[in-house]
Amino acid sequence: MRITITARHCDIPDELRQRARALLERLSRVAARPHDAQVIFGADHGTPTVEVRLHTARGRIHVGTAGGADHRSALDRAGAKVRRQLDKPPLRRARARVRRPR
Questions:
Q1: How many helices (DSSP H) and strands (DSSP E) are in the chain?
Q2: Burial category of 62 from C-beta neighbours within 10 Å (exposed 0-12, middle 13-18, buried 19 and up)
Q3: pLDDT tens, 62-95?
Q4: Structural domains of the chain ordered from first start
């Protein structure tokens, strides 16, 4: 799985990058056939924000966005949002009903 970590308008220490990589590796164990993952650190009007994107099988994209007092807490919140999405059962499409002749 390919992991991309990006920092926009802020500096991220290596320790936080390693924490983000470990979080994505834990999420990839739960996901069905993960392709790639992205973590985007940002500072929106001075508020630290984090967006976590996880691409899985059949084109599904799980996204979690969160803000917090610091980037570490925002990363934990965004990771928890993606984890909740992965824990939900997948939606099943209803089969088209075939009318049988009487």
A1: 2, 4
A2: buried
A3: 999 999 999 999 999 999 999 999 998 777 666 6
A4: 2-87 (3.30.160.100)
Q: 62, 86, 74, 87: which is closest to 20 by C-alpha?
A: 74
Q: How far apart are CA 57 and CA 70, in angstroms?
A: 32
Q: What b/e string do you get for 23-58 counting C-beta neighbours within 10 Å, with b at 16 or more?
A: bbeebbeebeebeebbbbbbeeeeebbbbbbbbbee
Assess contact for 55 and 37: CB atoms under 8 A.
yes
Q: What is the pLDDT of residues 42-53, one digit of tens each?
A: 998 889 999 999
Q: What is the pLDDT of residues 21-43, one digit of tens each?
A: 999 999 999 998 999 999 999 99
Helix, strand or coil, per DSSP, at residue 5: strand
